[in-house]
UniProtKB/TrEMBL annotation, chain B:
Gene3D superfamilies (UniProt xref): 3.30.2320.80
Protein family per UniProt: Belongs to the HypA/HybF family.
Record's keyword annotation contains Aminoacyl-tRNA synthetase: no
Classification via Pfam families: HypA
PANTHER family: HYDROGENASE MATURATION FACTOR HYPA
Organism of derivation: Pseudonocardia kongjuensis
Binding residues annotated for Zn(2+), in chain numbering: C70, C73, C86, C89
Annotated protein name in UniProt: Hydrogenase maturation factor HypA
Alphabetical UniProt keywords: Metal-binding, Nickel, Zinc
Biological role stated in the UniProt entry: Involved in the maturation of [NiFe] hydrogenases. Required for nickel insertion into the metal center of the hydrogenase.
Length: 262, 112
């Protein structure tokens, strides 16, 4: 894919029609004299690339996926805005599924081990990926970051790996990491319009957890309006309403999670 | 946001294709269903490439409108919002046929 084709050799005059496909006049006369490829020409050459920018990430995601398959592990990529309740939901999940499937967690955070610490001692293998190295800190986990965490997880001893992505409604949706399924946590304090404002994330989700429903009586929030907006961008996603505080819906969420298996 | 890391990915592809040639311009297609802000992307491009061989090169972004095809009535709709509803019959069983592009289409090079 995306083969590079230089134009500085003889015998490639046929390429130049394509090179000027956008009608840019470079004025260096290839058409007039196809034999003049002397190397003195310093005008711009257009070379076709046609390479998807996510190809490299996707290749690593496929390698991750192959490792997950080989180990017989189901992997869920869990995404949300900051504060929607991913980590609290995971705590409740680990408590509910104690003694059940063996769970590993890849915890993505820009800085600190606070979330990873909150998940410690609940029976799961937890590994932290801080994305803060480099230029300002990454706002998402990409496939190479997840790959770097895999040697720290005993994949062969696990049934389910949950990747808790960096809290962000934009970027994580763009990066496949090798997951089998994507779930997002949306909390009712975020407003009904979020699916329309962050359609890429909502569109990419296989399941939307509608969290903090215990707060509904206290909010001017219209659940129906939210569902209309969600369906406008994603007609197919499954939905589970939850409250980590009351325990409502946690069983259904766990049923979905353990049912992702191919 | 993620425009910085996207720029680094673009740099990787461009370097592989440009070899030793000097890059004047990188042409991209970005679908409107991508959550990529063109102005932010071009700003990050100059930031990421300052003091590198790609410094001074231009990122030229062609925005691709989102289009869906209805699986019910077979009509196509060009979207002005990310609402996946057929404009002809109101159906929501639709396929996205354009708008998810995110690719480097071509490079404009001069000899180094």
């Amino acid at each position: 894919m995306g083969r590079f084709h230089r134009h500085d050799e003889h015998g490639h005059a046929h390429e130049h029609g394509q090179a000027h496909e956008h009608g840019q006049a470079h004025g260096h006369g290839h058409g007039a004299d196809p034999g003049d490829h002397s190397g003195y020409d310093t005008g711009p050459e257009r070379v076709s690339v046609l390479e998807r920018i996510f190809d490299e990430n996707d290749a690593t995601a496929a390698a991750n996926r192959a490792d997950f398959e080989a180990a017989g592990v189901t992997v869920v990529n869990l995404m949300s805005s900051p504060g929607a309740g991913k980590t609290s939901l995971l705590r409740a999940t680990l408590q509910r599924l104690a003694g059940g499937p063996r769970i590993g967690i890849v915890e993505g955070d820009i800085e600190t081990s606070i979330d990873a610490d909150r998940l410690a001692g609940l029976g799961a293998a937890v590994t932290l990926v801080n994305t803060g190295n480099g230029f300002g800190g990454e706002c998402h986990l990409d496939a190479p970051m997840v790959r770097s965490a895999l040697p720290r997880l005993p994949l062969n001893e696990l049934d389910l790996v949950i990747i808790e992505n960096v809290g962000n409604l934009v970027c994580p949706a763009e990066f496949a990491v090798g997951e089998h399924s994507r779930a997002m946590v949306y909390s009712v304090t975020e407003g009904e319009d979020k699916p329309l404002k962050y359609p890429v994330m909502f569109r990419s989700a296989d399941l939307v957890v509608v969290n903090k429903i215990d707060l509904l009586p206290h909010l001017p929030f219209e659940l129906d309006a939210f569902y209309r907006n969600l369906r406008a961008v994603n007609p197919d996603a499954a939905v589970v309403e939850t409250s980590v505080l009351t325990g409502a819906g946690i069983g259904r969420w766990c049923d979905w999670l353990t049912g992702v298996r191919r | 946001m993620h425009e910085l890391s996207l720029c680094r990915s673009i740099v990787g592809v461009v370097e592989r294709h440009a070899d030793t040639a000097r890059v004047r311009r990188v042409n991209l297609q970005v679908g409107q269903l991508r959550q990529v802000v063109p102005a932010t992307l071009t700003y990050c491009w100059s930031l990421v490439n300052a003091d590198t061989p790609l410094g001074g090169s231009e990122l030229c972004i062609e925005s691709v409108p989102a289009r869906i095809r209805c699986t019910g009535c077979a009509g196509t709709t060009e979207l002005d919002a990310p609402v996946l509803v057929c404009a002809h019959c109101g159906g929501t069983a639709v396929q996205v046929v354009a708008g998810e592009e995110f690719l480097i289409t071509s490079l404009e090079l001069t000899e180094a």
